[in-house]
TrEMBL record:
Calcium keyword on record: no
Keywords of this entry: Glycosidase, Hydrolase, Signal
Species assigned in the record: Granulicella mallensis
Domain spans labelled Beta-xylosidase C-terminal Concanavalin A-like: 368-468
Pfam families, alphabetized: GH43_C2, Glyco_hydro_43
Name of the protein in its database record: Beta-xylosidase
Signal peptide: 1-24
């Protein structure tokens, strides 16, 4: 049936489908939940983000939760990774040829229980933990992804193709409290890793120290005895390490009176000392703090800073691109201020002009799925590691079948439903989610619906009780029960009896419920007919 998605409570935005059983007794823990027909999660209107198809662009270039950004150029191709926390598969990988139109091509980590059983469907603990920020590198014909999980350690995986398959994880350091690792292979072949540790270090009595380690030449092990602290400041993290024109540049962020700001250090040797400059100003109210990303030169010779916006709103942490100007050997991102520090820009000329272009962003087409493929599309991510036999693309070809599972808590909280499938929605006007669902297999004690999910959430559900189906609206845990559903009947355009269509206008939903904190869009396993009618019901009831 529908896909279920539960939010990654801090950076979010997803379309979801799920099948869950309430405490009302089910004859067994697992029940056939139904099938999902082609699901179109989102469609947006061109003109509010990214490439404008006329040689210019508007920020953000990715108005969705592609947080903790790192971008790498190999030849004329660009690759982007994004942290996924407790979503599985973990660490999304995207590609583009022009830095504007991006496509999700895979994930680095197929099973996030490699770190800990807490991330499995039968535990669902640590939604804000899991896969944190990483760095993507290319060396000796291999792609490398270095990342941390804050409670387990520092990891690396390699691949010949960024779409995968990726190698089994290598643990470089098994220890809690590490974040934002980044490698550098120097001209002499020596390999280094820079990373932040949150704990107070006995060497200086301060937290948030940035450490430099030597690595083996293949980048698959750390020489712990080479540890050196090269910088410390308030909440210093978001590390990247570069070498430009014979000088070493250390990108990071730290907290000042402005907020979390991007910084750049420059040194003649990799171990420092580093001279520090501020890369650009931030303002939480006007630009949502663009403060973590990558500095790179395009194959056309332009320099850019690709960054996420550090402050969440309902769609998560989107990504923007700022032009970079070099002044006296220092990069300045965005519009250069009188103090020589950059400022956020919301539009500009494309760094890689491509004409002519399609009038529609390819990324928006990625949200549609007819479930005819043998494998689940990389556009989807589960909330925690799913139960392998609780979903299928083959039990009924052309459908996603979800089997209902009981929530892990007695309150039947959505965040404890162990079969949640998510997809990022884009923050654009007139955003619409459509899912077609066959509810013929719902049984008493099950519910499903359409949901915005995050720190706060709202869902429109169908509940099956006493052999009858009825609507319910849940506003952050406060349920309002609505009218019953008419008997299932064949609808125009449906594949078969029991297939109904759910259509949701995101903007109207958010306005009606003031759910600006929502971080994930969820489509829950549900039987919901025409959404325009059902949403009117919700607006009357709230």
């Amino acid at each position: 049936m529908p896909n279920l998605s539960s939010p990654q409570l801090s950076a979010l935005s997803f379309a979801i489908l799920f099948a869950c059983s309430s405490t009302a007794a089910l004859p067994k823990l697992q029940s056939k939940a139904g099938d999902v027909e082609p699901a179109s999660a989102m469609a947006g209107r061109l003109g509010h983000f990214g490439d404008q198809r006329n040689g210019t662009y508007l920020n953000p270039i990715l108005p969705a939760d592609f947080q903790n950004t790192d971008v790498l150029r190999v030849g004329s191709h660009y690759y982007y990774i994004s942290a996924t926390k407790a979503m599985s598969p973990g660490m999304a990988v995207l590609t583009s040829d022009d830095l504007m139109d991006w496509k999700i091509i895979g994930h680095v980590i197929p099973d996030i229980t490699q770190f800990s059983p807490r991330f499995n469907y039968d535990h669902m603990d640590g939604a804000q933990r899991g896969v944190w920020a990483g760095t993507l590198a290319y060396h000796a014909g291999l792609f490398y992804v270095y990342f941390t999980t804050p409670d387990e350690g520092i990891f690396v995986s390699t691949a010949a193709n960024p779409a995968g398959p990726w190698s089994p994880l290598t643990c470089l350091m098994k220890a809690a409290g590490w974040d934002d690792p980044a490698p550098l292979w120097d001209d002499d072949g020596k390999a280094y890793l820079i990373t932040t540790n949150f704990a107070v270090d006995p060497k200086n009595g301060k937290p948030y120290n940035i450490h430099l380690f030597r690595m083996s030449s293949d980048g698959l092990s750390i020489e712990l005895e080479t540890d050196k602290i090269i910088y410390q400041s308030r909440c210093s993290e978001a590390n990247k390490l570069y070498k430009f024109n014979g000088l070493y540049y250390h990108f990071f962020s730290e907290v000042t009176k402005e907020g979390r700001v991007p910084m750049i250090g420059r040194a003649k040797t990799i171990a420092g000392p580093y001279e520090i400059h501020q890369l650009n100003h931030v303002n939480a109210r006007t630009d949502r703090e663009p403060n973590q990303g990558s500095i790179l030169q395009t194959h056309t010779g332009k320099w850019v800073f690709i960054t996420h916006h550090g402050l969440n709103e309902w769609e998560g942490r989107p990504a923007s691109i700022l032009p970079v100007t070099w002044i006296d050997g220092w990069p300045v991102a965005g519009e250069i201020g009188q103090d020589g520090i950059g400022n956020m820009v919301w539009s500009g000329k494309e760094p890689i002009p491509v004409m002519p272009r399609s009038s529609i962003h390819p990324a928006l087409f990625q949200t549609t799925d007819d479930f005819n493929a043998a494998l689940l599309s990389p556009k989807w991510e589960w909330f925690f590691q799913p139960k392998p036999d609780a979903w299928s693309l083959t039990e009924r070809p052309g459908y996603l079948r979800l089997h209902a599972l009981r929530p892990l808590d007695q309150e039947n909280h959505l965040l404890k439903s162990p079969d949640i499938l998510t997809q990022r929605p884009f923050r654009v006007n007139n955003n619409v989610a459509v899912v077609k669902i066959d509810i013929g297999h719902m049984v008493d004690g099950q519910k499903s619906g359409l949901c915005f999910l995050g720190r706060t959430y709202a869902s429109m559900d169908v509940i099956r009780k006493d052999g009858k189906s009825s609507f319910s609206f849940d506003n952050n845990g406060q349920a309002i029960h609505g009218p019953g559903l008419p008997a299932d009947k064949k609808q125009s355009g449906s594949k078969q009896n029991g297939v109904q269509q759910v259509r949701h206008n995101f903007h109207s939903a958010l306005t009606a419920n003031a759910l600006y904190l929502l971080e994930r869009l969820s489509i829950l396993r549900a039987s919901v007919a025409s959404l325009e009618r059902e949403w009117d019901f919700i607006q009357r009831m709230i």
